[in-house]
Design a protein that fits this description.
The complex is a heterodimer. Chain A is α+β, with helices and mostly antiparallel strands. Chain A has helices spanning about 15-20, 45-50; strands at about 1-5, 25, 30-35, 55. The mean pLDDT of chain A is about 95. Chain B is of the alpha/beta class. Helix content of chain B is about 35%, strand content about 30%. In chain B, the strands form three sheets. In chain B, strands 1, 2, 8, 9, 10, 11, 17 and 18 form an eight-stranded mixed beta sheet that branches. In chain B, strands 6-5-13-14-15-12-16 form a seven-stranded mixed beta sheet. In chain B, strand 5 (about 70-75) and strand 6 form a beta hairpin. In chain B, helix 6 (about 295-315) packs antiparallel against helix 7. The longest helix of chain B has 21 residues, at about 295-315. Chain B is globular, with a radius of gyration of 21 Å. Chains A and B meet through helix 1, strand 2 and helix 2 of A and helix 4, strand 12 and strand 16 of B.
Chain lengths: ~60, ~400
């Protein structure tokens, strides 16, 4: 599953705009992931992040 | 918050503010919701805008102007510079804004016009009736409200979630999302009247680095790179840190700004039944410069006007609202976006040897007008070989 490093995230929304499944949402100053939508495969969010705040963890 | 309005605006940036102001001025009941607790913060912008573009909407005010520019300088990979504007432009070039103050001024104008503003109020879903947007679910201070609206204007920026929830795909391809990092850097030697653009595939792949002065010895220094070029150890912030260490090693960093800018084509259609999409949410940021303030203000105002006309007519169907899409797409904005998309497609394919050759060819040119069009024409004149490589680009001019 994807893990959001809240201490690294700049809550900019770049990842939200590229998520092909609409699984990410920026709620005020924190990012959330809907794990029913995210398939943990594409890595697009962790690639695009300007700060490196999203990491994929092995289940 | 009431149960129903004529117009609901989702998002309190420049696009949303102009939409709310314009609709309220025409006597409509308007609610604008902004999910952040403060308008204008956190900033996600390099804050540059052309003077003439800005003047269409608001009288310049020193309260929110940080720097008044008279030139732009392009710097090639090997450090060769090409200056546009200089002494001939009559100080018409542009401003660097203080968005925190600017955005609040625009919202205040919307409020003065009669729009209701709610902050820390987040739209979490559209209310859909018979497949048509009919309002939104709003969360604020732990409460949930169902707010009905005859027209919803989606101005929720690069994330563009509201439109996605309404069933329209707003996902930006990874290759066409510029991932950006910027510092406010103090105590540096800069020309306070010049915007600098560093063009280099090595330093900023498929993007550029900017130095936009914000006042005395202070600048926004940032970078955008293509999403495809980002990854562990080579993210926007990594590139920016390397650039700052090389060019401004003694600068003091006083603010970190991050963000995403779409450089894709606009949405295929920017209206639906009872819905108008404006600014970054409609993917209307400029594919070459990344600039989005003017495009958001222009389409925000247009959306307010079109919503008012549709409500007067009692018909807010997609067919009636299409005049919004047709107007911006067939006008100067749509043409500039289409042209600059073609320019972008050509330039992201270039390597540093080509960039060097282009900048070298221009050093003895003089260019007063700062526009992508005039710049590209000058580049073609100085580099006839480009016309063979990029015939489609030439035609788009």
């Amino acid at each position: 599953m994807i893990h959001i490093r809240r201490d690294v995230c700049g809550y900019c929304g770049a990842c939200v705009s590229v998520c092909p499944r609409g699984a990410l949402e920026l709620i005020d100053a924190y990012l959330t992931v809907d794990e029913t939508l995210c398939k943990n495969k594409c890595k697009i969010c962790s690639t695009v992040c300007p700060l490196g705040a999203i990491v994929l963890e092995e289940q | 918050m009431k149960e129903a309005y004529d117009v609901l605006v989702v998002g309190g940036g420049p696009g949303g503010a102009l939409a709310a102001k314009t609709a309220a001025e025409q006597g409509l009941s308007v609610l604008l919701v902004e999910k952040r607790p403060a308008i204008g913060a956190p900033v996600r912008c390099a804050e540059g805008i052309g003077k003439e573009a800005l003047a269409e909407f608001i009288k310049p005010d020193p309260k929110w102007i940080c720097a008044d520019l008279d030139k732009a300088v392009l710097i090639g990979p090997d450090g060769t510079k090409f200056t546009i504007g200089d002494n001939h432009s009559g100080g018409k070039v542009g401003y660097v804004l203080d968005r925190k103050v600017f955005d609040r001024e625009l919202i205040w104008q919307a409020a003065e016009a009669g729009a209701e503003i709610q902050v820390h109020a987040r739209a979490s879903a559209p209310i859909m009736i018979d497949g048509k947007v009919s309002g939104a679910v709003i969360h604020q201070h732990g409460n949930t409200y169902e707010v009905r609206a005859k027209v919803v204007i989606a101005a929720d920026g690069v994330e563009s979630k509201f439109t996605k929830w309404a069933g329209i795909n707003t996902t930006v391809p990874l290759a066409e999302l510029e991932t950006c990092a910027q510092y406010v850097v103090n105590d540096i030697d800069i020309d306070e009247r010049a915007n600098l653009f560093y063009i280099s595939y090595t330093d900023a792949p498929c993007g550029y680095i900017w130095v936009f002065p914000k006042g005395h010895r202070c600048a926004n220094i940032g970078i955008g790179i293509a999403g495809m070029k980002s990854g562990e150890g080579h993210r926007a912030k990594d590139y920016l840190d390397r650039f700052i260490a090389r060019e401004f090693p003694t600068g003091k960093i006083t603010e970190l700004v991050v963000g995403g800018v779409s450089v894709c084509k606009p949405l295929d259609c920017t209206v639906a039944d009872n819905l108008i999409i404006v600014g970054d949410a409609a993917r209307l940021s400029d594919p070459i410069t990344g600039g989005g303030i003017y495009n958001a203000m222009y389409t925000g105002k247009l959306a307010g006007d079109v919503a008012a006309a549709a409500l007067k007519k009692g018909d807010t169907s997609k067919k009636t609202l299409m005049v919004y899409d047709d107007t911006w797409r067939d006008g100067p904005l749509g043409h500039a976006l289409a042209r600059n998309y073609a320019v972008k497609e050509a330039f992201i394919k270039m390597d540093d040897a080509k960039f060097n050759s282009i900048v070298h060819s221009m050093t003895d040119l003089s260019l007063d007008e700062i526009s992508v069009r005039s710049l590209v024409i000058a580049i073609f004149k100085a580099n006839p070989w480009l016309a063979l490589e990029l015939p489609r680009l030439l035609l788009s001019l």
